[in-house]
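By convention, each integer encodes one residue's backbone shape. The lines below illustrate.
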Amino acid sequence: MKKILNWCYCHITSRKPRLLVVCAALLTLGAMWVASGLTYSPRLDNLLPEDMPLVKEFNRVIDKTGNTGPLVVVLEGLSQKQAPEVIDDLSERFRNVTDVYFVDSRLPVKFLRNRQLLFATQSDLKKLEKVVEGAIEHARSSLTGFFGAAQDTYNPSQLQDLSGQYKIFEPLQPYYNGKSGKKYYIFIQPRGTASNTGFTKNFVREVKSQIDQSRIQKEFPNLKIQLTGSMITRLEENRMILSDLKRSAVVAMVLVVFILAMYTKSFLSIALLLIP
């Protein structure tokens, strides 16, 4: 190996240094041209061939189920009177976004009327069953004039709490406002998947553009609009991955320069080695 390096130095490096610089510059330009076409894609399904039965079945299920989870628009700072105007306006604008499958901003009030217990958990339903049984036994014992142990099992405050929690005796609000009632939600279902970073970026950008074009936040200064959901999570993960890659590249470059400096002890040699 030393003989080869000595021969290269005596017959090429020392005799034609300019040729080496020109070759290094040409190699650098070629490498830059090739590297300009490189892109980062976090989609693991792109590593598999499209004609695989598993990939075909996966794509078929995705197309049938509406692909990824919805992009959720969170509206905070709206009063109950302001909510219909703002939500209806934004919902109509979101339907104009490219590749929108559907926009959901209203509860099916007609269907859910007198069916509020569909939202109840299994534990609450069991608790309600016991309370209702106790109320029935309490009513029977009251009518007959006999009071027994069944009367003690009836707790009217529990029934009031459950009815208030699920608004059994209250009119349903037509908009999604959560348990706290301070935030309203609009669900935007895309046709693409969150794993497709390019699609996700463009989709979120268009949604934000529709919000800015509506100027709704200028009309309602207390309104705060945030985006959440699997698409936002994927973009955040992608940002963190790219940030880690850049940090790793910088650390690797520093280590390479340090090793070359310790070995060659020449800045010119380091530059000639790193340029290609």
About this structure: Residues 61-227 form one domain. The chain has a mean pLDDT of 79.
